[in-house]
Amino acid sequence: MKCVLEMLEKTCRQYPDKEAVEDIQSVVTFSRLVEMSKRIGSLLAEHISKNEPVIVIMEKSILSLASEFGVVYAGGFYIPVSIEQPVERVNQIISVLNAKIIVTDNTEKIKEFGFDGIVINVMDGISHDIDEAKLGEIRKEAKSEDPLYGIFTSGSTGTPKCVIINNGAVISFIGHFTETFGINKDDVIANQAPFDFDVSVKDIYSGLYTGAKVVLIPKKYFSMISNLLDFLIDKQATVIVWAVSAMCMVSGLRGFNYKVPDKLRLVMFSGEVMQPKQLRIWQDALPDVKFVNLYGPSEITCNCTYHVVERKLELGDVLPIGIPFDGREVFILDENNEIINKTDEEGEICVAGESISDGYYNNTVETEKHFVTYNGKYVYKTGDMGYFGENGELYFCGRRDFQIKHMGHRIELEEVDHAISQIDGVSMVCCIYIPERNRIISYYSGDIDKTELHKEAKSKLPGYMLPKKFIQVDTMPLNKNGKIDRNALRTMEG
After folding, report:
1. pTM
2. CA dist., res. 182 & res. 185, Å (int)
3. Which of 135, 262, 347, 370 is most enclosed, with most CB atoms within 10 A?
């Protein structure tokens, strides 16, 4: 295969009338999903050229999924963006991409962005005639190296970065992923992640590859745990691939005292470090389920390592991030860029092999910084620190810089600082992350009060980047090098 549409169409030929995707409003078969996608693609093909970025601004739904595949049918690549993102961030995304076209189900909302390009209403797309001749011409030019999607991560300069993943990378990874865990046409995958978070890629494309049904869990259910568990039971979910924070909502709020979704057979999690106490609650409630810890940044297409949890965890246990998937090579480099072969010695986690991103869109500087050639191999340097244990498995032990994982998202604290520093009344700002409390704290000096600062920051930052607490200080403590003393700040958190 050289294009994910081949994956979709092959499954459609095998199971044309099988339910493919279900959202809160409706359900579609594989044949209907292909039809909708082709209709949208035929309309988009009138407006875009090959490998052009198309922003899809919608909440996750059957329509947004069909829109993404429609972009691929039209020869472009899609960038999913939540309609709840602040205007300022969406405008940054548009600027980075130099995007000329947006697909949405809310054209009124798009007016807030001051976008002067083409806005396509998805409803016009699904009523458009299919142009098989045009779509066929586009397909003939398709290559596995063609970009498939872009995912935005935080940027240390205050500008978000767009990770580009091509068709071949997803096809290779999903093949290994579904085979490793035995995902098949009889599974029901309950999707938690929004489409602008690459955890969703595993849900979407595992369904396309195997014929499994994907059900999209409404976002609101994660603040209504009884509804969430009712949903999993009602849909007879067998597989979930969730962010750690989503799993901890269930265990932390004692959801299993209400009901247990006993059809689950496979529970996978990633995005943050899973606390043994929380995982143990899941293990006790679902003793026959296989639990898997997944690791990997967006730049390597979802995940590069996995660890199957084979016993109940005890407090104090350290959960490995495991062994590489087939097609991947994972190694650790020291500060001198030498490979570390000793056990228990920390270094930077690096990844080579299949499915490595082509880099950051329109950002050569950051691409060359993180994607390098090492011993003749194309390598992504993750910035994560880790070590190999005596069992041969990899362990994660933090970030090399101030990048963090919070609420399942990878965040540069400098970007949060940058956004807050632009608010009137803020003189200096420094954000730190308290991992044991899973919270971002923002320290600032200036004459703006905390309530107003929180309001202004909320208008600039998505929810997962918004500090939990703002602490006003007279002056920032400095270390001997004249830099902000972060350790001193930590002692001020109350």
Report:
1. 0.86
2. 10
3. 347
What crossing angle do the helices spanning 4-14 and 199-210 adopt, rounded to 10°?
40
281, 274 in Cβ contact below 8 A?
A: no
Distance CA 450, CA 473 (A): 11
DSSP 46-70: TT--TT-EEEEES-SSHHHHHHHHH
Provide the 8-state DSSP code for 337: S
Asked whether 326 and 383 are in contact (CB, 8 A), the reply is no
Residue type, 19: E
Q: How far is the C-alpha of 433 from the C-alpha of 441, rounded, in Å?
A: 6
Classify the phi-psi angles of 98: left when phi > 0, otherwise alpha if psi is within -120 to 50, otherwise beta. left
Pair of tokens at residue 18: 């099988």
pLDDT of 481: 46
CA distance 69 to 17: 19
Q: Please state the separation of Cα 292 from the chain's center in Å.
A: 17
Q: Which two tokens stand for residue 448?
A: 């703006």
Tokens of 161: 């970065």
For tokens 């959960």, the residue is 319
* Residue 351 φ then ψ, to 5°: -130, 135
The whole-angstrom separation of Cα 214 and Cα 116 is 35
pLDDT of 238-296, one tens digit each?
999 998 888 988 988 899 999 999 999 999 999 888 888 889 999 999 999 999 999 99
* CA separation, residue 334 to residues 264, 338, 342, 343, 352 (Å): 41, 5, 11, 13, 16
